[in-house]
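Entry for the shared binder. Reason: the reviewer on the internal report wants the predicted structure included alongside the sequence.
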Amino acid sequence: MRRATIAGTGLYAPERVVPNAYFDELYGEDVDSFLRENRNIEERRYAAEDQATSDLAVEAARDAMTDAGIEPADVDLLLVSTDTPDQISPSTAAVVQDKLGARNAATFDINTACAGFVTALDTGRKFLETDEQYDRVLVIGAYLMSRFIDYDQKNVASLFADGAGAAVLAPTTGQDGILTSTLVSKGEYHDYMGVYEGGTACPITTENGETQRLAFRKDFPDDFNPDHWTDLVTTLTDRLGVTPGDVDQYFFTQINILSIRETLDRLDLPYDRAHNVMDRFGYTGNACVAMALADAVDQKLLAPGDLVVMIASGGGAALAGMAFRWGDA
């Protein structure tokens, strides 16, 4: 069986920068200190009014394809992970295919909320590994949550941001590539949080002119992410016959720096073992792990042969983990 490797990565953050001071002014209190100390967020990006999720995805895809040295016509399969699609139907992936000019690519969307990019990467690599008609698979995580923020919920409104990350998968004959993965679902949390109507290109508007909003209906348990992230890490490393300390770099969902640190504490690992980008980009949902990976590549933080673990979680609740050896990409 062929093995898939990540041949290129890319990210896109919209031009509009929204600093924490925006929320200080909005709420008339010091929001900045809490965000810096407890969420590691200093600023975030919001999309322009004329941008939809597909536009963010296209920019990240172009960056990843440039990094991989391929053209849109080289893409055999295009997967978009998003829970903020352009519309309910057709798929955002079809829109991205058209905007990119990736005329040879099959397309579909994947929605496992903020676990989506890792889930889509796992899906794409299985196409590549088992069917030789797929040699270049483009996987994109895209998030445009600024359209759905409920500013009455001041405890969470300042977290969310817009962005996209992408990766190109290709076959490898070397020692690099995706080694193992695992997907978990906790459906009992399906009604805790979500956007239950509409899409980014044409949001549903109520009679009083309000659009749909991200709804937090119930609170997740405080230890939900550290508990499940730790379990996912040990599941992956046990399969590979290594320890969590043998992993060179971790990428976690970028929603809460305290959860990341608690997970690293439980694994007896230093905090610098996980690369974070929420300080600049805020919380970009299913795009955040992809953006963190691309940012680490840009900063040359990964070396050939490094063992990398990605852990993602989101509404549903959905969780996904993946381990891979970094190549020469």
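Summary line for the report: Residues 253 and 289 are 6 Å apart (CA to CA).
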